[in-house]
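hey m, so remember when u said the tokens were messed up on ur end? i reran from scratch. heres the input so u can diff it against urs
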Amino acid sequence: MKKSMEETKEYIGMWVTADGFIKHELLPNNRYDEARGNRKSAYQGRYTVKANHIDYTDDTGFTADGEFREGILYHAGMVLYKKAD
């Protein structure tokens, strides 16, 4: 049986849209930092991962979620790919 993202912790790191416009970094301390275009730290907040599901709460209180499927993060209509280290 394939392990979930929660078990492997492979979610930690930089996730990027195909066009590179959105860069979404999931930090090991359950914080995230999202850049949009040239705007660094456009959104920041905390996240939790349960199995292959991720919940976000940004520092303003806004909430969102997403799913990891086949190594791809689907979040709020975006498709993000893990950037190699």
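this time it looks ok to me. The chain has a mean pLDDT of 95. if urs says something different then somethings off w ur setup not the seq
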